[in-house]
Design brief:
The structure holds 3 protein chains of 3 kinds. By secondary structure, chain A is α/β, with parallel strands linked by helices. Chain A has a domain at about 1-5 and about 50-145 and about 210-295: Rossmann fold. Helix content of chain A is about 35%, strand content about 20%. In chain A, strands 6-7-8-3-9-10 form a 6-stranded mixed beta sheet, with helices on both faces. A 4-stranded antiparallel beta sheet of chain A has the order 2-1-4-5. The two termini of chain A are about 25 Å apart. The model of chain A is unreliable at about 1-25 and about 40-45 (pLDDT under 50). Chain B is mainly α. Chain B has 2 domains: about 15-105, no CATH class; about 130-345, MetI-like fold (Orthogonal Bundle), CATH 1.10.3720. Helices cover about 75% and strands about 0% of the residues of chain B. Chain B has helices at about 15-40, 45-65, 70-105, 110-115, 130-160, 165-180, 180-195, 205-230, 230-240, 245-255, 255-270, 275-280, 300-310, 315-345. In chain B, α2 runs antiparallel to α3, α8 packs antiparallel against α11 and α13 (about 300-310) packs antiparallel against α14. The model of chain B has no long low-confidence stretch (mean pLDDT about 85). By secondary structure, chain C is mostly helical. Chain C has 2 domains: about 20-85, no CATH class; about 85-325, MetI-like (MetI-like fold), CATH 1.10.3720. Chain C is about 70% helix and about 5% strand. Chain C is built from 12 helices and 2 strands, in the order αααββααααααααα. In chain C, strands 1-2 form a two-stranded antiparallel sheet. In chain C, α4 (about 85-120) packs parallel to α7 (about 180-205), α4 runs antiparallel to α9 and α11 runs antiparallel to α12 (about 290-325). The mean pLDDT of chain C is about 85. Classes of the chains: A alpha/beta, B mainly alpha, C mainly alpha. At the B-C interface, α3, α5, α6, α7 and α8 of B face α1, α2, α4, α5 and α6 of C.
Chain lengths: ~300, ~350, ~325
């Protein structure tokens, strides 16, 4: 996984030896996570997602430059970096949501199980079934009930499922919401709290059985209590799917992810500076700029 | 290292997609002509109907092959919405084209510079004109603006700035007032003023009737526009210690100025062509009446109305030419509204 | 200290007052007074129509709305005997207005969807301008165009409908005269109200919250799937509101209807046939030669029309506010 990223480190400066001795609470957290991660869990589906040389433009503005990342199946990868460095733009190229903004263009490839999702003639709606997304602001459909929300993906894709109740329970349980809503599946989604709504959105994304789940700052609009619950959910989910999470919160990245990629824009297009196992990024980053960011010198 | 990578849009229609669309349209055109020739169906309706049925059928086949049932539904939706838009476009185009085509035939200098004082409706085109009605309409518009702009904008200010306790009631009433039929507005002025006071048909009464119709339009648009002014602007004014009225007058209203002008122009456009209220209130007159409060008057809509009822080909021709003049007036108002609005916004 | 610090005493909220400056008081007074102008005008309308139409209403009683006959005759003693019953015209109003709505709403909603989600930018700009302009076309223009341009085509369509569906009562005709029928009036009315329904619908559709739109797409929806799942539920209330606005306009339409409809004082459900009317156009038709008592009757008819449109607006607001509470 790291081999692709190293090719991007031509501008990186070497780390000083002192770095190893510096106490870094983030790296401790990340190290703990690496210990607890069950190697091998449930066999994840597919071979994962890979971005090769992805560029993105908004009109003439070059927003993202030459990002290559390999997301192995069954891993959680965090994308960190200061505001405006292209993390959200990048994650939206992974499920072809970038193209909904008018006058955008892209270059490069995004491979799901070895096939480029931007290939001509491909059915993009099928791609989005396999690569799901959870957004920053919870967005359940207010005109539907809780139960209808979870199953809405099936209805939209016209997928037939034999047992709706089973699927409902399974998805809501995996999202950590079942016990709270099992008696009011017919209630409107708008009555839930922010954290509950976000978990509902996660359940909704799970219902179509995606191989990859993209999460764009899923907890930034939530209180700390809900945040922790969702982070638990992420850890559980990573046993059966690939997760990519954009986050501003470095502690969160340290808590939930196996790998971390650091993005930065120095006034020009955003680039991916460095990627590696999370505890290494936070304790022994190879690039000076990464170190500056994770130690809080900027951002 | 500069990137020699070129931006692409892999999601845009590929040449293959475009070719398929062009092909299906071409085939459908041929089919529609063939079917019309072979069956007793005829007329523009038949061509259009068969064309769309055929195009939808061919396109659905392709969509089903590539995307399945939901692709077919998606394609169907796309075409049916297009048909809706085409129907509306056809109607508008027909109206505009007819007006221009028929109207220009009777349009000449005499038409807009003379009145009907010395001509009758049976006189050929070239004798007599509608100058009196043009003046009449302009007087009516001026008076209506005078009456309805203060009422309309102040009511909007009540709703957006004061937000008093009666706001819900006022809001409801403005909405109710916007539904008052034009006939009723005219009847009301007649019932209230002609039957009870010595006032008789005049431009003044006509303007009053038009005001009833104009105020809700102005209020509604002004309200929308004032609500668009961000709260921060008002808070900035108040935080500097300004009184509310100063904040409104010097901060809010200037910020919304272009929209408010648009509101007034939309109101004018609304009433410029109204006929029914004027039938009860301004009477008829064959030459210019400069006195708005005394004496009957003419307006472009009432002139057209009487031309339509008159029945002679000359009268009908005059009606078409008059409506062309009215349409040009409305168009000018529209353009004025847009350009004023844009200029104010660019500042 | 035995008393735990947990007994907190929350002070009551302070009443915040301010004494507005004189200039503000004047400002508020002026604005309030002018705003109540709407109330004043509406009440005055009702009042004067009631007063002037009163004699008729008193004579005819409730029959004014329910009877079918409208005639003025003099009996043997030279006294005027008048029967004024609006029922036929009320039925006519309802027929052509609802028929117009039936034609207009689907076309308007489709057009609004096309403009918001399918039209390329250049076409969208042109079409939006054109439709806004269409809303400003005077009624008399629709009357002229309806009579001279649309009617010949509509007569052909009416004959076609009669040929294939004439076995259904409403499409049958007692005599093959298809000019100036409720059918044609409905078409003209529908074209008149399409712009406003389209504008309102378009506005509502374009305000669909982007996050829900994105949620639908992210779940693999096609564009139509997204529209059905998000846009239409969100915009339903607005569409209904806009439609009722259109209905209100159709109810009161005068000159356009008068041009393309043969006003006969009998309820006619056979829409392809040359007979019909609505209250507004009837008032215009009879106004020219109306004597004193008939003037009073026509004013009373105006009152009825006024109340009718008021009710429609009231219903429109109610529906819209209800849908705002739930679906949004």
């Amino acid at each position: 996984m790291i081999s692709n990223a190293e090719a991007n480190n031509q501008n990186g400066t070497q780390m000083s030896e002192q770095q190893n001795a510096k106490p870094s609470s983030l790296s401790d957290v990340a190290a703990k996570r690496a210990e607890h991660k069950v190697a091998g869990g449930t066999v994840p589906m597919g071979t994962g997602l890979e971005a090769r040389g992805v560029h993105a433009w908004f009109d003439k503005h070059h927003a993202l430059e030459d990002v290559s990342l390999d997301f192995s199946a069954g891993t959680v990868t965090a994308l960190i970096g200061p505001s405006g460095c292209g993390k959200s733009t990048f994650i939206r190229t992974l499920n072809r949501m970038h193209e909904f903004i008018p006058h955008t263009s892209m270059a490069g490839q995004v491979l799901l199980d070895g096939k480029d999702i931007y290939e001509a003639g491909i059915d993009v709606t099928k791609i989005r079934l396999q690569i799901g997304m959870v957004f920053q602001k919870p967005n359940p459909f207010p005109s539907m009930t809780i139960g209808e929300n979870v199953l809405s993906g099936l209805k939209l894709a016209q997928l037939k499922v034999s047992n709706h109740e089973e699927l409902l329970e399974e998805c809501l349980t995996r999202a950590g919401l079942w016990t709270e809503v099992k008696d009011r599946l017919g209630a409107h989604a708008g009555g839930l709290s922010g954290g509950q709504q976000q978990r509902l959105c996660i359940a909704r994304a799970l219902a179509v059985k995606p191989k990859v789940l993209l999460m764009d700052e899923p907890c930034s609009a939530l209180d700390p209590g809900s945040t922790l619950r969702i982070e638990e959910t992420i850890s559980q989910l990573s046993k059966s799917m690939t997760i990519v999470i954009v986050t501003h919160n470095m502690q969160q990245a340290a808590r939930v992810s196996d790998y971390t990629a650091f993005f930065l824009s120095d006034g020009g297009p955003g680039q991916m500076i460095e990627v590696g196992p999370t505890n290494e990024i936070f304790s022994r980053p190879r690039d000076q700029r990464t170190e500056n960011y994770v130690t809080g010198r900027f951002g | 290292m500069s990137s020699i990578v070129k931006p692409t849009k892999p999601w845009a229609a590929s040449p293959r997609d475009r070719a398929i669309t062009a092909l299906s349209i071409a085939i459908s055109v041929v089919v529609s002509f063939a079917v019309v020739a072979a069956t007793p169906m005829k007329g523009k309706l038949a061509y259009a109907f068969i064309f769309f049925v055929s195009w939808i059928a061919i396109d659905s086949l392709f969509a089903f092959y590539r995307l399945g049932v939901k692709g077919v539904r998606n394609g169907l939706a796309e075409k049916i919405t297009l048909i809706g838009a085409l129907i509306v476009s056809a109607a508008v185009f027909s109206i505009l084209w007819t007006t221009i085509y028929k109207g220009t035939k009777g349009l000449n200098l005499a038409f807009v510079t003379q009145t009907m004082r010395e001509a009758s409706i049976f006189d050929p085109i070239g004798k007599g004109g509608i100058l009196h009605s043009i003046v009449g309409t302009l007087i009516l518009i001026a008076l209506s603006i005078l009456f309805s702009v203060p009422m309309g904008i102040l009511t909007a200010l009540y709703l957006t700035e004061l937000k008093g306790r009666a706001s819900a009631l006022i809001q409801f009433l403005v909405q109710a007032m916007s539904g008052v039929p034009s006939v009723v507005a005219g009847l009301f002025i007649y019932a209230a003023l002609v039957l009870t006071t010595p006032l008789r048909s005049s431009a003044f009464l006509g303007a009053l009737a038009l005001t009833i119709l104009m105020v809700p339009t102005v209020t509604r648009t002004a309200q929308e526009v004032l609500n668009l002014v961000p709260r921060d602007l008002r808070e900035a004014g108040l935080a500097m210690g300004a009184t509310q009225w100063k904040t409104v007058a010097l901060v809010v209203v200037p910020a919304a100025r272009s929209g408010l002008i648009t509101a007034v122009i939309l109101g004018v456009a609304r009433i410029a062509g109204e006929t029914a209220p004027l039938i009860f209130t301004i009477g008829a007159f064959d030459s210019i009446n400069w006195n708005p409060v005394k004496g009957e008057s003419a307006s472009i809509p009432t002139i057209i109305w009487r031309g339509l009822l008159g029945g002679s080909p000359e009268a009908v021709q005059r009606a078409w030419s008059a409506i062309l003049v009215l349409l040009i007036l409305v168009l000018l108002l529209f353009v004025a509204a847009r350009s004023l609005g844009n200029r104010a916004m660019k500042k | 200290m035995s008393v735990a610090a947990s007994t907190k005493v929350t002070p009551p909220a302070r009443v915040i007052t301010t004494k507005p400056r004189v200039s503000d008081q004047i400002f508020r007074a002026i604005v309030t007074v002018f705003s109540f102008s709407a109330l004043v005008i509406l009440s005055l309308i009702a009042l004067f129509l009631l007063i002037q139409g009163f004699s008729t209403l008193r004579e005819q009683g409730f029959g004014f709305i329910t009877h079918f006959e409208w005639s003025i005759t003099t009996d043997d003693s030279g006294k005027e005997v008048a029967h004024f019953g609006l029922q036929a015209m009320l039925i006519g109003t309802v027929i052509i207005s609802f028929l117009a709505l039936l034609l207009a709403v689907p076309i308007a909603v489709l057009t609004a969807l096309f403009l918001t989600y399918y039209a390329p930018d250049s076409i969208k700009k042109i079409l939006v301008t054109v439709i806004d302009l269409m809303a400003a076309f005077p009624s008399i223009l629709y009357g002229l165009w309806g009579y001279f341009v649309l009617m010949p085509m509509a007569i052909y369509w009416a004959k076609l409908i009669h040929k294939w569906l004439g076995w259904i009562y409403i499409f049958d005709v007692p005599q093959p005269i298809f000019a100036r029928s409720p059918f044609i009036a409905s078409i003209v009315l529908s074209i008149m109200i399409i712009p406003i329904i389209t504008s309102v619908s378009r506005e509502v559709f374009s305000q669909t919250p982007l996050d829900r739109v994105q949620a639908a797409y992210a779940l693999g929806a096609t564009k139509w799937g997204m529209i059905r799942a998000v846009v239409l539920p969100y915009g339903a209330g607005g569409v209904v509101g806009g439609s009722m606005l259109g209905l209100g306009r159709a109810f009161g339409e005068t000159v356009a209807v008068y041009s393309v409809l043969n006003i006969v004082f009998r309820p006619n459900y056979q829409i392809l046939f040359t007979q019909g009317g609505n209250v507004a156009s009837m008032i215009i038709q009879k106004w020219g030669e109306a004597g004193k008592s008939e003037v009073s009757a026509l004013i009373a008819a105006g009152l009825v029309l006024f109340i009718l449109t008021l009710l429609v607006n009231f219903a429109a607001n109610f529906i819209v506010s209800r849908s705002v509470k739930s679906g949004r």
